[in-house]
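Entry: Aminotransferase
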Amino acid sequence: MVQVPGPFKTPPSLKLDPKPLAEVPARALSAEGADAGGGAAGGGTAGGGAAGGGTAGGGAAGGGAAGGRPGAAPARPASRRSEIPVFEVMQITDEVARRRHAGHDVVSLCAGEPSARPAPGTLQPAGYTGPLGTTPLREAIAGHYRDWYGVEIDPGRVAVTTGSSGAFQLVFLTAFDQGDRVALVSPGYPAYKNILSALGVEVVEIATGPDTRYQPTPELLEAAARERGDLAGVIVASPANPTGTMLGRAELQALVDWCARHGARFISDEIYHGISYAEPGPDQRGVSAVELHGDAIVINSFSKYWGMTGWRLGWALLPEDLVAPFEALASNFALSPPAPAQELAMRAFSAETYGERDGVVAGFARARALILDAAPALGWGTAAPSDGAFYYYSELGPQLERFGDSSSYARALLEGADVAVVPGGDFDPVAGHRAVRLSFAAGEAAVAEALERIIRFQA
Ligand SMILES: Cc1ncc(COP(=O)(O)O)c(C=O)c1O
């Protein structure tokens, strides 16, 4: 085996024998036991493996966060499908940017992108960044965890993605293989199960209701595993879409511990953190799973609290063992997250921006109060508590007798009163036909107007 010289380190999972990938037994390529030298990953580019520094496997990953492995079942290995060569050019692009940032005069003959950028005023210039995002943004995101949650995160574990949607695809691809079983709750955000299904992962939907505040519990996970078989992962959202319910610290801890004991990956969608209506206190913005266990996978985004949906920017916090496999997939699937969005997002973590966004959340709180106050007049059935996010999810109660199901109700409401609400079927294939979701992200004036129209429509 040839030891690759030069500055670019091959990430551990990519130190392949120089035989074709198909001939290498899949598990032999996993991060463990793959430390013996390595040929050139990524199509044999001379000059060796991929740029490692700061991205693949840098530093005390997993560290900082409280955790370790309570219950200590061995971590699941990364998926077999992530055992592909990293797209080396993207890692070198990252290394070039880092060196330039550090003051080096780097001449890059590396990337396949025109250096003659369009003139400002016609098109805006922007180039690729590293596959896991720019170093300053990854550091800024790590800083956000220090500020909000009091945990130290190695920026090398932060992967910037194309929205949290991009993070789901890459995390699921990295963590799970076809046929693996992953649990999530219903009602829930439909893209989790749809992406998992598209990737050939078996979705284990756990029906929840008001008794568990529409969230999973260790008992529910236990029952699901008994019925369907071992779980490779569990996905949780707090605050959740469509119910808005949140998990307290102890409840989240119990779920994280269950996963650690059973060797399942814990994936925490924290996209609605910061949008909560809880009493002021240390956990008001939401408890991050990474506070509780260093190996939790956290997914977040600039879309909701920061309101940057169209910039398509999110991130994942990865356990150390998944960084290199994730990077291999990201560098091939996405090349890099969008550069202008990353530049803009650097402003997200200032005191001024937090203050502005907290002001927006205060507006959501006022809009939410309008709905809660109007609930008796709406006369619907059981509603979820709406602890956070900007959703009110409610059964329609007596309106079902009149309209049959929530889709018919929503259609009639749109046609009869020009008010659009979402029927619950997408979120819950079993009981969602009885419920609707109202988003109060539209703000107080829109919500007040909609409520008036709905009450008039139902009269
Ligand atoms: C719970 C949840 N997660 C993730 C997303 C995806 O957001 P984005 O891809 O814009 O980050 C949404 C969007 O509505 C959501 O409700």
